[in-house]
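[agent] plan:
  1. take the single chain provided in the ticket
  2. run structure prediction with default settings
  3. attach structure tokens to the ticket
  4. add a short note for the reviewer (M.T.)
[agent] executing step 1
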Amino acid sequence: MQALAASETAPAVFFAVAALGALDNSVLDMVHSSLSRPSRPDQMDLALRLYSRAIAHLAKSIQQGETSLAPVIVGCVVFLVFEVTRGNPLCAARHARTGNRILNERLGLVEDVADFSNNFQPLLPQSGGTPSELGYTVVFNSLEEALHHLEALTSAGQELQAELLRVAEDLVDTQWSSLLSQNPASRFCLVNSLSKTMPLSAARQAQFDGIQNGHLQWKKACAQLLAAGEYPSRNAVRLLVRSFVARSTMLACRSTSERWADAYFEEFSAGFTAAELLVQWQYSDFPVAENLMSRLSIAEDHAQNNDVSASSEWDSQSPPFGPPPPRSDYLPHPAGVFGQGVFSTLFTVACKCRDATLRRRTADLLISSNRMEGHHSGKRLGLFAKIIIALEDQLALCDSELDSPSSSSEPASQDIPDTARLRDVVLHTADGENVVYISCTRQPAGSKGGIALEEYRCTDLDLGIGMATFDLTDMLFYPNSTS
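[agent] step 2 finished; step 3 output follows
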């Protein structure tokens, strides 16, 4: 209601609310293996145009020293809800930090840590140098410093990934729009797979290598910090979860083969352990929208009374880590909680780690977590994870029977062949049907290149024992993007 009231007088809020409405008509109730969500392109274009206008108006208000806090903070809240709905929690976090920074300035609070995101540059190779020779070294004195550096790396990786997805999307719409215009799930899968396998320019490759090197150096510096006694505090565990999400996203961002995951088992295991701790602690991020609106009320009272002490209780709750952990009996509230990577970590492990024991433990933990993050429930994601595992196992058995007809046992996960490993997956259900529809890409059998795009219907679900029936309903082949 506050957003609607503010939209009558504040252009930023008006366009933000309009963008959120257009986005709600655009985003489909489907889940990609990255937890991003397919959308209708025409409606998404409208939503992004309105969103850009809203951000431009908000930036102008901030630059001009807008005296009224309400339109600015309400705008930030609507922006973070927009990004949560879009499936982009990292951008939502940036809007939350912007709102909190503005509130801190109004309340006279001082940030504990300088903002490193402006002076950190992705590690691009200079003339005659490789990323490993650039000499990027840093020592973290606190978790807050480590978080700021991680956010800068994450933002750089996000921007590169978004750029690659735009190029792949243009390629798909140019060459195959007639085949996929009415099938957003399959289109989304193909766009994501092409963005990972298409050739890169020298500049983009250097950018990617630099970000990867930055993550490695960050990991070393963070390990030194945690060895000094910060671990296993809740904030340290949250930091490790967020690091896993950022690093694994970059690894998967450029992968011509799903074999990259086999060398990443230790990281998968560590990511699972950190996420499991947060689930066991019943940790949930404080509802961010509620947090910002509560601080807005305090700031407005402070402006009237000029009483700094009235806001002192919020000093420990300012970014980057937010409020203290909730009580053990606190039930996670979905509204305004965009998560700090628990679901992203667990779903990535379940989808990409081919160790049979670990990926099944992860799917079970999702189901039993009793959590909501953004639009996602742990139970639904755990179900989808088990379906992906069962489909890969079935495809692997089919391959093994072709090679050795007498083989009938479940494949060892690390031995799942490349042609049975799903690269990108989109899953969704239909109202009133006990059916899960799957669009996925994988390496075609008997081919060293190209992408096989397949669609399945999953029925007869008995995922307690890992059984399901899959019917192949459609299959297309796309050649290498260089051809």
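[agent] step 4 note for reviewer: Residues 110-136, 307-338 have pLDDT under 50 and may be disordered.
[agent] ticket updated
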